[in-house]
Task: structure prediction
Amino acid sequence: MKYPFEEIEKKYQEIWENDGFFEKKKGEKHYLLEMFPYPSGKIHMGHVRNYVIGDVVARYKTMKGFNVLHPMGWDAFGLPAENAAIEKGVHPVKWTEENISCMKNQLKKLGLSYDWNKEITTCSPNYYRWNQWLFLKFFEMGLAYQKTADVNWCPKCQTVLANEQVLDGACWRCEAKITSKSLKQWFFKITEYADEMLDHKLGKWPENVLVMQKNWIGKSKGIEIFFKEKKTGKTIPVFTTRPDTIFGATYLTLAPQYPLVDELIEDAPNFSEIKEFIEKAKIRVSPDELEKEGIFTGRFAINPVNNEEVPIWIANYVLMEYGTGAIMAVPAHDQRDFDFAKKYGLPIKIVISNQELGIKDHRIDRAYEGEGVLVNSGMFDGMESERAKEAISDWMEEIGIGVRKINYKLKDWLISRQRYWGCPIPIIYCSECDTVPVPEDELPVVLPLDTKPGQNLWEIEEFVNCKCPKCRQPAKRETDTMDTFVDSSWYFLRFITPSCETKLVLKEEADYWMPVDQYIGGVEHAILHLMYARFFTKVMRDLGLISVDEPFTNLLAQGMVIKDGAKMSKSKGNIVDPDSIIERYGADTLRLFILFAAPPEGELVWNDKGIEGCFRFLNRVYRLKDKVEERDHKEDRLYIPINKTIKAVTDDLERFSFNTAIARLMEFVNEIKNNIPKGIFEKFLLLLFPFAPHITSFLWEKGKISDSPWPPYDEDVIKEKEITIIIQINGKLRGKITAPYDLEAEEIKKRAVLSVSDKLKTSPKNIIFVPNKLVNIVL
RNA sequence: GCCGAGGUGGCGGAAUUGGUAGACGCAGCGGACUUAAAAUCCGCUGGGGAUUUCUCCGUGUCGGUUCGAGUCCGACCCCCGGCACCA
Result:
């Protein structure tokens, strides 16, 4: 037996299409947002999960009387569109538009309550002109700059990538191995906000997301110490977090790319050997495959704390991008330096003593990296390393051989992409005036649409050639486009006034709606998108666009959808198509199952059988319509259960425990035996409505169910008059009694002892009483 | 290696502050209805033993705190996620 979900869902989706969802403008504001999708073709179960969670919250909050903003849009620039153009000969515009219309249709078939009047599409000039406008603002503020750097290059995507977009040495999108390339590129100075981004003081974010971001930012406090090269007297600064080990520095190591290297080795007898090593060492290998190797330069440096000469080496494990590109090696107290020193027979000098390692024993077999008392460290001998760090730093700064410094792992965000299907960077290069920003009133720089598949912007002369805005002489446009993560770093602001032509957002409206009260999306964006969006928010605040420090007050990081032990994906061939499920069971069943199968933060294991249970449940609900009776409901035996259910479902929704909320609804239906009074049935329908809006709309009969407020519960009824008291003997369950609510302790204890008297071999030593819960008799 | 989250029946998962472990659903078993099947409805369903309402064991392992521990503390084991020569 199946209820006629096709007709029901079609009917109500048509009604919603015409009526919309959010006409009323009263109550406290609630900005609810789910991560907008890339229009890749069809929605997948991950989308369904994300958007169904959002929809339940939207409908619940609306019923609770909030003024809800719940918009949806499209993250529409990106590489798959270009690949499709090359493979199928369809223009990215057409491909994207078709996908959007298909996916929008799918979202509607799920019964999602979006305010489609606020829809945005990042590839439309009306949207990306503000992308360009923000770029110009960043440029004015010195937050957008160009530099030549060794950058991550994906040979398959034929473009550069930001650091965050390289996973395990491979491209985040196509998994091709990343190579290095030296290019002049545009960067956003995200590092300027590194410190502020370490704290998220607003609302509730999952701990693991905050920790991941913190690790990514990777703040470390230390000191730059100035070594001098002996022959030339040139300064080689090294960064360390362990100044307490400075007396144990027995050699220096430079990154292969270190600028001074060429000069240092020019008169070395084994010059060509060193050169060869450097070229080999420059090739990036993943850390676990890399054997630590190095070569002596023939030169020495002076350790400024004791004027000792230490050899200068070049090693493949020293990174040019972090710190100064040069390190002081303390083999006794750093495992990497230790391995290296052992391999090349370099001296190992212990300067931190500890219980495990005798200070006189020089044949240690590993580095001691912990804290301890300083030895062999001149006037700092006997000091605790924690104190010595400060004392040595103070002293170094005083005599000018070092300066305290904070380093971050976080790098500036490389935003140039050598791709066509993206937002053009609004910059013009003029032989006279150099780098000139496109004037604001000439925005947008429109992406030319009359192109052939695979054609790049630099191949389109009409685009490239232009006039310099300053001197009106012929000039050339920047032909790189922006990383698509730029588009999604501020879209939550555009949703507020999406069609405003004069401003990115109207200030008063932004002040009303921002920040987003609840953001919902996959954990996979914990670093990339969420960090970029926080960065943009802080810049937009400094620009005076908004008054908030953070974009998203609360974050719900939803788990992945799994089948056969792996994330659902086309390449693994384990996808379940939402359309086929809707066709078979209807959208309400799909919505219910995806919420019921797992708590939102956890992984959801797809089970073809499990969905049957939700379908059966909705069929039972449907059949209830024949059991509804017109009669007084306050006296009915279901009156207490429905009130308990209202309380439970309300509490569960407040803490996003959708799976248990649905279980409560199922329990209630299991309670109904022969019939149900209409008043109680209606309350039940209101509770079920956010989860299964179609079937509940149908069963509601009178008017629109969505106009009804969330039902309150009767406090008096919930407090039961007769309650069950657990009786334990020595903490083990031995019986139960029922007693009036709040019956006094002595009376309960008396009854409890009496009820288990045959099991009491000795008289009780102690009786623990927890009001309205249990009695524990201790023998 | 470091950081984070977790380990509960055959399975997905409940147990919100330490107080009836296993709600709800799936799968399974038995029964009703039916000529039969499907659907539906009812009952059982952590393990062992007595077979009736009794009893022992049981939330990764070992120990601790407590009248009482899935929940708190300590040590260890195992999975998952993130970062990984960051000096």
